[in-house]
Write a structure and sequence with these properties.
Layout: H1 2-8, H2 14-25, H3 27-31, H4 35-41, H5 46-55, H6 61-72, H7 75-81, H8 91-112, H9 115-125, E1 130-134, H10 137-152, E2 157-160, H11 165-171, E3 177-183, H12 189-200, E4 204-209, H13 214-217, E5 222-225, H14 228-232, H15 236-258, H16 260-289
Parallel strand pairs: 1-2, 1-3, 3-4, 4-5
Organism: Candidatus Galacturonatibacter soehngenii
Domain HTH rpiR-type: 1-75
Protein name: MurR/RpiR family transcriptional regulator
Length: 290
Amino acid sequence: MIIEKLERKNNFTSQEKAIAEFILQSPEAFQKMSCEELGKATFTSKSTVVRLCKKLDVSGYQELKKILYFERNSSEYRKKKNLKFDKNSTINDIIVTLPEIYKSTIEEVNLCNNKNLFQRILNRMRRMNQIDFYATGFGYTLLESVAQKFNSFGIESKAYNTLNERYLAANLKKTKIMAFIMTFSGNNPLAIHEAEVLKRMGVYVVGVVGPIAEEIEKSCDEVLRLPEKAMQSETGFILISQCVNYMMDIFVTGMLVNDYDEIVARGHIMNYLYDKEIYYDTKVSKKTDL
């Protein structure tokens, strides 16, 4: 939706941000203005408004007004505005609303990170021998479960809450490593230091970052962005875990598809061994009972 693009203001100049803020804060006034009048009201210019229209992928100013009018009056937009809880929320409200919140959060992730970015990271991942994850606190717990998903497919993966430089120096001689470094804020000093060291050691670094990420981006080969909306919500931790799991599941599934036949065959062998073990344990148990 155009409204969401205006709210995120990704890659907007300071003048474009001023126009976007005016449109969001004064939608009725905006609908009555000409292109020139909007430029004057925001202390910008008609040409800046036109450039913003192009950045929003609309053909012109009139189309922008038309689309925004319909978006603001659509049932989908009204529903999204009401995706929240309060002290009066019932269990039914939670059951009905949570799936919609999840859906909206995933849409935000896709709007913040285009498919070409995911494809580039996945292409590089397929050439790696090991995938490591770095985070602290709640983020570390999240990434531990992500590492287990990769391990279940036979892809060596580990989660760390601190950097072991000696281990890395020894291991890099015999293996290619990709490292995901996650910081919800984007400016965690430990995460920035880890990214700098890993980059210097020749590790392919992917940042999973919040809104204040200028410093850590300097040491990242690619950057995945966490939606700012998710972190500002009262259900922030729930939504952040949804964002991270969705992004990482894209890569897990991509790796599964890449080695599908091999992984499926390995799964059949594991199932056979598991069934055989149960059969053996059952026989032993019966003999013991006798």
